[in-house]
């Protein structure tokens, strides 16, 4: 057995009457355990929130979205669309026209985003997360229907059961060179029948109204122009694979974004928050680990005679430093192991049984979402090792400077 490890283990497992040093060592282990446990729990909560955001966005957004790199819209024709449909991995292709419009329902008005979609829109597993109530169709050519965000519906006081009150949509016409005194010629208008509400995420709930593509194309006078194409991936294909196929097929004039890229800013914000929380808790863990520094410093003072005896027997300064470094490592490793186990157990219980509720009746999930990632455990372990080395180095160096002639 390694001599430095053997001596450090003897100090760590000492059965002597407890004194201030052993109490300080115990406090150090508890501090490391609590800090490590907090890191595991908080990192898992951020992972869960990231998954929740992805899941909610995936309920509204397409797996892949095609947009023009320059300009708001682009021209399409049946031959070009068929070419995209025939790209390997493309299962469903939905045409989209999206723009802002003024909504009026029974005198209540709101500017919102009207999203005209092909009839196969709901074939892309839309609204699989969140809430949806009402009809799952968009009506027909004679009575086009509207699926509204819950926030839009509540603001306009829409009653789905009242079929006699239509949802009026107003859209400004392109400016003409000749002025007109008739205000009715300044905008286009048409009516929709509210058929359903959806609730996915507030950003969508308060802004969007889903309508048939034909209705939106005629109202907005888009003709063959589309603002985007939304694509569902065939089974057996990966999103990255189909994304690369589409980029190669469409060329540099079009962007092809997956769900994460469609909301890159928000997901980047969540990752940054996770990073800053990790650094903050690591700093707190470092402060808690200062007890290791004090306990090893006191141990070095108490064991001066033992150190002097070891040196008299031929021990080098390197061996003395290794003894105290390993003593600090044992304190940190035991504390970190306890923290990792407790953190894992708490996160597993939350994931399995939802012990801690969000406390929001209208929330999409009842309990705080959590998810454990092995890389988080790896980074936490690395942080504990670094903190231990920093906290143990100075006491180990002091212990190695003990003079044999002064202590014996």
UniProtKB/TrEMBL annotation:
Task: Give a yes or no for keyword Nuclease in this entry.
Answer: no
Domain named ABC3 transporter permease C-terminal: residues: 281-401
How does the record say this protein sits in the membrane? Multi-pass membrane protein
Protein's UniProt keywords contain Transmembrane helix: yes
Ranges of residues in domain MacB-like periplasmic core: 25-151
The residue ranges crossing the membrane are 20-46, 275-301, 328-349, 377-393
Tell where it localizes: Cell membrane
Q: Which family does it belong to?
A: Belongs to the ABC-4 integral membrane protein family. LolC/E subfamily.
Q: What is this protein called?
A: FtsX-like permease family protein
């Amino acid at each position: 057995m390694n001599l430095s490890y053997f001596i450090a283990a003897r100090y760590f497992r000492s059965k002597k009457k407890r004194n201030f040093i052993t109490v300080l060592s115990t406090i150090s282990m508890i501090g490391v355990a609590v800090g490590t446990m907090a890191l595991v729990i908080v990192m898992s909560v951020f992972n869960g929130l990231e998954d929740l955001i992805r899941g909610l966005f995936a309920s509204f957004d397409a797996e892949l979205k095609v947009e023009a790199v320059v300009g708001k819209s682009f021209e399409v024709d049946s031959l070009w669309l068929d070419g995209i449909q025939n790209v390997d991995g493309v299962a469903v292709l939905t045409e989209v026209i999206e723009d802002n419009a003024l909504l009026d329902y029974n005198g209540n008005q709101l500017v919102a985003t009207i999203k005209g979609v092909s009839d196969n829109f709901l074939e892309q597993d839309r609204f699989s997360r969140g809430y949806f109530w009402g009809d799952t169709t968009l009506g027909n050519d004679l009575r086009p229907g509207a699926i509204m965000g819950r926030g839009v519906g509540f603001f306009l006081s829409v009653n789905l059961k009242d079929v006699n009150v239509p949802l009026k949509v107003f859209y400004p016409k392109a400016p003409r060179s000749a002025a007109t005194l008739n205000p009715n010629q300044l905008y286009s208008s048409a009516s929709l029948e509210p058929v359903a509400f959806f609730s996915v995420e507030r950003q969508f709930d308060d802004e969007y109204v889903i309508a048939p593509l034909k209705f939106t194309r005629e109202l907005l006078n888009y003709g063959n122009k589309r603002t985007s194409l939304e694509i569902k991936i065939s089974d057996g294909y990966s999103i990255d694979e189909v994304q690369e196929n589409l980029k190669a097929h469409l060329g540099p004039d079009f962007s092809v974004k997956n769900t994460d890229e469609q909301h890159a800013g928000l997901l980047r914000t969540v990752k940054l928050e996770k990073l800053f929380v990790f650094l903050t808790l690591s700093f707190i863990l470092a402060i808690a680990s200062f007890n290791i520094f004090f306990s090893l410093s006191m141990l070095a003072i108490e064991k001066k005679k033992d150190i002097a005896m070891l040196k008299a027997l031929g021990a080098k300064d390197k061996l003395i430093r290794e003894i105290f470094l390993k003593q600090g490592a044992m304190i940190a490793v035991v504390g970190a192991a306890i923290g990792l186990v407790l953190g894992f157990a708490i996160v597993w219980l939350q994931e399995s049984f939802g012990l801690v509720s969000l406390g929001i009746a209208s929330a999409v999930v009842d309990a705080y979402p959590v998810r454990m990632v092995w890389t988080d455990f790896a980074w936490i372990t690395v942080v504990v090792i670094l903190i231990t080395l920093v906290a143990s180095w100075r006491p180990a160096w002091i212990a190695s400077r003990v003079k044999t002639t002064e202590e014996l």
